[in-house]
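Example record

The entry below shows one chain as it appears in the dataset: sequence first, then structure tokens.
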Amino acid sequence: MGDGMIQGKEGMPLRIDKLGIVIAALAVYGALLAPFATFRANRIVQGEAKAILEALPPSLGYALLALLAFAAAIAFFKTPNLVRMTVAFATLVALGVLIGMAANHLTPPENTYARVSPASGFWVMVFAFSLLVADALTRLNPGPVIRLLVLAAVLAIAGAMLIGGGWDGLSMLKEYASRADTFWKEAGRHVTLALGSLAAATVIGLPLGVLCHRVEPLRAGVLNVLNAIQTIPSIALFGILIAPLGWIAIHVPGAAAIGIRGIGVAPAFVALFLYSLLPVVANTVVGLAGVPRDANDAARGIGMTDWQRLAGIEFPLAFPVILTGIRIVLVQNIGLATIAALIGGGGFGVFVFQGIGQTAMDLVLLGAVPTVVLAFAAAIVLDALIEMTVTDRNQGNAA
């Protein structure tokens, strides 16, 4: 990131951060030009845009504007990364708390029909200061444990707001309140689809990757087939699987009893499994190919068998690359599992497509936000595991 420079008081140079200019501009737009919250008298009527000073009591509104101005200045000028991250994180927490208070402030007493939702200004500011946190973290380059602690802190704060009822007045939480049992049922199905297909792909893909590494003529054919499957759009693949799985359910004894049928979880699971194979197999091949020849020669020299070399030398050295493939699969599957709702597979996509059909954006968010949070958390956790694995391997090599 390049930086500009201006002269401050008494000739002291003040450096300008170019990314900070963008973040400050977004913060100013979100705070002053875009609405902070949207009020609707009921679920289906057109909403009324409310600025910060309309959505909050005056004291809180002016306090938030002052915090946003300070945070924008911190972003605009070149400041220590730890300060930038701390201020941006505090601003995000303040936005999260105050949007819940805005819902309570705007909703008339004893009114169960009114709906209050975060508006574009809120989302722009959340994006801007999330970008500032991410940029500061990247520059600080913290270790994996610190990144996991930051993730845990974010989830703990969000959990405290949910448990404490700070967001109960928001429209999305009112949608949740009327569908709580269904939400957790679909959440379990979403996680089952994503993790179950990943587990199946890992069980099949690892041995297949080892075989492709060992048998070079087989490698190109297998990878080309798996690559061709990846190019099939998800909706098309779900549709392709309906006919064969429906035939199996009718003609194979016991298949229907264990849940195999043309629509529902079965085609979604199989499609996600097929999509998962290429990253697992390809990364296994690449990881094993990257094992130093000297390590294999030394293992042969002490009389290790092929299986012993694979289990004790090759696989541990290739594991970070294999884990990278698993990370790609998990994040991919969490997103793709949303589409499963179109064929009765369940998951958070149920709320997304119901919301689209009813033109209810808050219902769409009820399905979309948990999906994004799951994918984001999974990426951070697996990135940290990969880095810890690489560090342990390097320390072992040095020893």
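Notes for this example: The mean pLDDT is 86. The CA atoms of residues 299 and 308 lie 9 Å apart.
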